[in-house]
Amino acid sequence: MKPLKINYLFIGVVTLLLALAMWPTLQWCGDNSTQLQKIKQRGVLNVATLNVTPYYYQSSTGIDGLDYELAKQFADYLGVKLNIETEHNVTSLFTQLENGDTDMLAAGLIFNPERMKNLNVGPAYYSVSQQLVYRQNMPKPQSLANIKGKLTVVAGAASISTLHQLKKSKYPDLSWDATPSDSSVDLLKQVADGKLDYTIADSVTIAMIQRVYPNLAVAFDITEEEPVMWYVRKTEDNSLDAAMLNFFNQINEDGTLAKLEEKYLGHVGEFDYVDTKTFLNAIDNTLPGLKPLFEKYAKGIDWRLAAAIAYQESHWNPTATSATGVRGIMMLTRSTADSLGVTDRLDPEQSIRGGLTYLEQLMAKIPDSVPEEEKIWFALIAYNMGYAHMLDARSLTAQQGGNPDSWVDVKKRLTMLTQKQYYSKTRYGYARGYQAYQFVENIRRYQLSLEGYLQEKDRQLAKARQTAAQDAELGKSYPAIKPNQFQLRQPIPREQN
């Protein structure tokens, strides 16, 4: 999954050219007939999306998501409020837009030329590939020519157009089922559970689902990288399209778009089946005993993030010990433990209390110029390789023209601290920057798995309770039969020959 950075370089030029081309049909002020003026007069931007990570989802802190934040900022840019509605699948989304029930779609949607008769798209803000997935430990297909089983896809998805093209050009015997009621996430879960043989989805959605359903495996890419865009209705004035172009040009130039991409997509690339499976097993078997301690001592960060940090350090093993002498669940050094009043590093509660207190102290030292939500990543770098080396990474970022207060910029320079041509220009010299980089990335992936897995367990539990309640209610509709009213019918004796 590669962000379309080249596209961003030309957004400003494209915006200007499109604005000039559309100017005769645009009346930005004093005309309430344009689509944009109607939205401003209404005071609300209506957006439809999918309730799917990382586009729009409920997190421990409220509503999050790449498309949610972008849509919120676009509404602010227009000077209106955001009204966002969620749909279950792509078919419902486009029905909403085509019927005029929403102004735009923002849901990680791939560009689909077949929809361009009545719709327009905004600028690409990242890219994905379409991938064929199957269940882990089943035979891996090498191409669409040798899939053995049923391929099921979402009706109305971009993959339908791709499959038609492939059937016409390369695989004449290719066939598939299209379901109008299920979402791509529904189908991915069914493949992981062995209920379906194959499906096709975008690489980002697959990477997210694999953190909770590691039995989902990628066979191969169906397409090259394709742009992800917002969709709007095609109108004569194109005013909303022009505003969208200006907005994306602005957030690209000021670095907002890069920060949001890093926040939601920067850590989802690598996937290790065994590691993820082991982690999910630990959530079931080990975490319940430690959860109260993380909830008690996590201050300033969510307890699930604290648990992910501890798992990266020790795999929640209270007796973990490294070759360098750090020990315990939070892998504290002897000197750090002494400074925190930790007398027994192998005691889970002391270790968790000490480690999280130390992390809190590091966060308090991070310069106020760093955005509040990004301070944790700078603190974790300091936790792993030392506060002084974290300052060197910021200094190196500034030397190279980057923003030392931006995690997306500093993150790129961490591995340079292992190279003499770079660390020789810093105050504190060589540091294990690559290790620190992986440290933070792994923690973010564990946090993603933990949050998603716990939410999925809650959903399954709620569904089971609902089913039980429905069964109980159904049972009430039948008359109760007392034991003395229930008699077995005596068998009729067979005639003797």
From TrEMBL:
Q: What Gene3D superfamilies does this protein's entry cite? A: 1.10.530.10, Periplasmic binding protein-like II
Which positions are tagged coiled coil? none
- What is this enzyme's EC? 4.2.2.n1
Q: Name one GO cellular component term.
A: cell outer membrane
Active site, UniProt feature: E313
Tell me the ranges covered by the Solute-binding protein family 3/N-terminal domain, including all copies.
44-268
- Identify the stretch(es) annotated as LT domain: 269-497
A GO molecular-function annotation: peptidoglycan lytic transglycosylase activity
Enzyme class, top EC level, equals: lyase
The listed locations are: Cell outer membrane
> Does the UniProt entry include the keyword Membrane?
yes
One example of a Gene Ontology biological process annotation: cell wall macromolecule catabolic process
Membrane-protein topology = Peripheral membrane protein
What this protein catalyses is:
Exolytic cleavage of the (1->4)-beta-glycosidic linkage between N-acetylmuramic acid (MurNAc) and N-acetylglucosamine (GlcNAc) residues in peptidoglycan, from either the reducing or the non-reducing ends of the peptidoglycan chains, with concomitant formation of a 1,6-anhydrobond in the MurNAc residue
> What NCBIfam families does the record point to?
PRK10859.1
Q: Which family does it belong to?
A: Belongs to the transglycosylase Slt family.
User: Which comment does the entry carry about domains?
Assistant: The N-terminal domain does not have lytic activity and probably modulates enzymatic activity. The C-terminal domain is the catalytic active domain.
HAMAP family to which the protein is assigned, alphabetical = MltF
Supply the PANTHER family for this chain. MEMBRANE-BOUND LYTIC MUREIN TRANSGLYCOSYLASE F (PTHR35936)
Q: What protein name does the entry list?
A: Membrane-bound lytic murein transglycosylase F
